[in-house]
Amino acid sequence: MKAEVQSHEFNQNLFFYDLVSSFSISLCGCPVIFEPDVEIYKKANQLISFPGAYSQAKHLAPFQLREQALKGEINKSKHIASCCMMLANTAYESVKQYNDRSEVFEFFRHIRNASSHLNNFQFNHKEPAHPAKWRGAVIEHHQKGEKNVLFGKPCFGHFIGVADLLDLLMDIEQKIILSLESSV
C-alpha cells in the first residue's frame, strides 16, 4: 500500500509560515544525520559555516553529528521533540495577543508551557484553570497541579506528535483569521 503524501500548506502572509518552513527544513534534514545509508556528509572535512555579528563564524561538522548519532549520543526522537518545542514556543509567543481563552487556545497555551519545561507538562496549584480541548485531545482542568494526570509527562512524542502540532497551528491560524474577519 502506497502512503499518501499530504502537504501542510501554510500561507506566506499569515503567522506561522516562516516558523513552519524552518521546522520542516530541520526535520527533512534528519535522515542526513540519523540514517547511516544516506551518502551525504560522510567526509570529516565537510563543514557548514555560520557567520556571527559579534563573534567569529562558527563551523558545524555534519560528519561529527552523524558519528554522535551512530554512537547513540544523540537521537532522532529527541531532536524531533526539540524542534517541536521550539516551534510551539515561538508560534504561541507570536500570536498570544489573539488568545481568546477558548478551549483550543488553552490547549495551545498548555502545549507551549510544556515546551518551555523541556517537553514536560508542569502545572502550578491553580492550573489547568480552564477547559483545554482540541480535536478530541483533552487536558483535564479539574485535576490541578501535581494531581493532574499529565503532570511531569512528556508532551511531544507521547501526548501529541509532529502532525498534531502542525494541524494545531493551522487551526489556530484559521481561528485568528475568522476572529479578525468578524471584528471588521
What does this structure look like?
- The protein is mostly helical and 184 residues long.
- It has a domain at 17-31 and 75-182.
- 44% of the residues lie in helices and 7% in strands.
- It is built from six helices and four strands, in the order ααββαααββα.
- It has helices at 17-28, 30-34, 62-70, 76-95, 103-116, 162-182; strands at 48-50, 58-60, 132-134, 137-139.
- Helix 1 (17-28) runs antiparallel to helix 4 (76-95) and helix 4 (76-95) packs across helix 5.
- The mean pLDDT is 89.
Radius of gyration: 19 Å
Contiguous low-pLDDT stretches (5 residues minimum) are none
H/E series, N to C? HHEEHHHEEH
Given helix and strand content, the structural type is: mainly alpha
Task: Give the number of helices.
Answer: 6
| Mean pLDDT reading | 89
Q: Could you give the count of β-strands?
A: 4
| Spatial arrangement of strands, main beta sheet | 1-2
Q: Helix fraction?
A: 40-55%
What's the quick description here?
Helix 1 packs antiparallel against helix 4. The strands form two sheets. The chain has a two-stranded antiparallel ribbon with strand order 1-2. The longest helix is centred in the C-terminal third of the chain and has 21 residues.
Give the arrangement of secondary structure elements.
Blueprint: H1 17-28, H2 30-34, E1 48-50, E2 58-60, H3 62-70, H4 76-95, H5 103-116, E3 132-134, E4 137-139, H6 162-182
Antiparallel strand pairs: 1-2, 3-4
Helix pairs in contact: 1-4, 4-5
Which descriptors would you attach to this protein?
184 residues, mainly alpha, two-stranded antiparallel ribbon, 6 helices, 44% helix
